[in-house]
Write a structure and sequence with these properties.
It is a single chain. The chain is of the alpha/beta class. It has ten helices and 14 strands. The strands form five sheets. A five-stranded mixed beta sheet has the order 6-5-7-9-8, covered by helices on one side. Strands 12-13-14 form a three-stranded parallel beta sheet, covered by helices on one side. A two-stranded antiparallel sheet has the order 1-2. It binds zinc ion (ZN) (2 copies). One of its GO terms (cellular component) is extracellular matrix. Its cofactor is Ca(2+); Zn(2+). Keywords: Calcium, Glycoprotein, Hydrolase, Metal-binding, Metalloprotease, Protease, Signal, Zinc, Zymogen. This is Peptidase metallopeptidase domain-containing protein.
Length: 377
């Protein structure tokens, strides 16, 4: 009998209970029927251009929140007229979510719009980053033609270093740390980035925490359901979970998977916007109980965003031949180059003390060791 205490289901329930006091106020039994801030959209079924229904102004604010609408005349933003601008916004939304762009609020549109999602907009300043543009995301080989749908933030903000530190805000639930650590490891394994955790009271590039409602960053959360989390573009570094959601460490029906959402939000921290590829981690919405992993579309996005590092004012590659020379000269040269280069290739003789070189070049520098054999003349 005692062995049943450690049944996997018991373990998952235990984790929910541990998370519950911090991650959400009510321990209600999760249900797909729980109300969501997006549920009002269901009452707009069948609406199309020319309609005037009282919830339309709410849908306008939904579309504005995620970047699909931006009225220059603000009175139209709060009225209930389903006008041309709104029809155009609905069609754009439908294209992004692979729905026939009818401009009508049909069942499929309602299903997509009411799905829980990330709070980061899909469109910024009128640029729809979820659609391919200028063919610059297209690649082809002899008989394969691939169109990628990853996106970046306005102006392609990115990090100029490859090692990033992260910390959790004070009172962050300890059992919600491993899923985030694991999410960082996934990005670490798939990209040129590496990450390390620092204590709560130290400076870090990235900061992770749970917040609820209006938490003073211009992007208030909306209670249970609706928006689940958000993160800011480089080099802001903030990643917030909505504390009002039901979160779980392991996948479970009715609960949102902490690690999956973390992998998505870290994508934003690194500079990715939303992708229209359903299987991509950067797709904007996710169902309760769903788990996802990095997709080639996500990894390609990071590769392309950071491939243009040679445009930086810093050198990308420096080849140094250090064969002889005093230790002082060598250390001074390496120390200065350390802050100016992304990659070193050192060609050295056998007398090089690697401990010294390693201590000088530590940090966001990749060190390739090439040891030459002495040449006999
Ligand atoms: Zn997102
Ligand atoms: Zn926030």
């Amino acid at each position: 009998m005692a062995s049943k205490i450690f049944h996997p289901i018991s373990f998952i329930i235990l984790i929910f209970i541990l998370l519950a006091p911090i991650c959400h106020a009510n321990r209600s039994i999760p249900s797909a029927k729980n109300s969501s801030p997006f549920d009002f959209i269901k009452s707009l079924k069948g609406c199309h251009k020319g309609n005037n229904t009282k919830e339309i102004h709410e849908l306008k604010s939904y579309l504005e929140k995620f970047g699909y609408l931006n009225y220059s005349n603000k009175t139209h933003a709060t009225d209930d007229d389903f006008d041309d601008t709104m029809e155009s916004a609905i069609k754009t939304y439908q294209k992004n979510f692979h729905i026939k762009p009818s401009g009508i609020i049909d069942d499929e549109t309602i299903s997509k719009m009411t799905a829980p999602r990330c709070g980061v907009p899909d469109i910024v300043d009128g640029t729809n980053y979820m659609q391919p543009r200028d063919n610059r995301h297209e690649s082809s080989s002899s008989n394969i033609h691939i169109v990628s749908h990853y996106s970046f933030f306005q102006g392609n903000p990115k990090w100029t270093k490859t090692h990033l530190t992260y910390r959790f805000v004070p009172n962050y639930p300890t059992n919600a740390i491993p899923p985030v650590v694991s999410a960082f490891q996934k990005w670490d394994a798939a990209t040129h980035f590496s990450f390390s955790q620092v204590p709560t009271n130290q400076f870090s590039d990235l900061v992770i925490g749970f917040f609820r409602g209006n938490h003073q960053d211009g992007a208030p959360f909306d209670g249970r359901g609706g928006t689940l989390a958000h993160a800011f573009a480089p080099t802001d570094g903030r990643f917030h979970y909505d504390a009002d959601e039901l979160w779980s460490v392991g996948p479970a029906p009715g609960y949102f998977h902490l690690e999956t959402v973390a992998v998505h939000e870290i994508g934003h921290l690194l500079g990715l916007g939303h992708s229209s590829v359903n299987g991509a981690i950067m797709f904007p919405s996710i169902e309760a109980g769903q788990t996802k992993n990095l997709h080639p579309d996500d990894i390609e996005g990071i590769r392309v965003l950071y491939a243009s590092r040679s445009e930086d004012h810093r050198f990308r590659l420096i080849i140094i031949f250090v064969v002889t020379g005093s230790r002082f000269l060598r250390d001074t040269v390496l120390g200065r180059l350390r802050s100016a280069c992304h990659v070193f290739i050192l060609v050295v003789d056998r007398t090089m003390n690697w401990d010294i070189v390693g201590s000088i070049l530590k940090g966001p520098v990749q060190l390739y060791r090439v040891q030459l054999e002495p040449i006999d003349f």
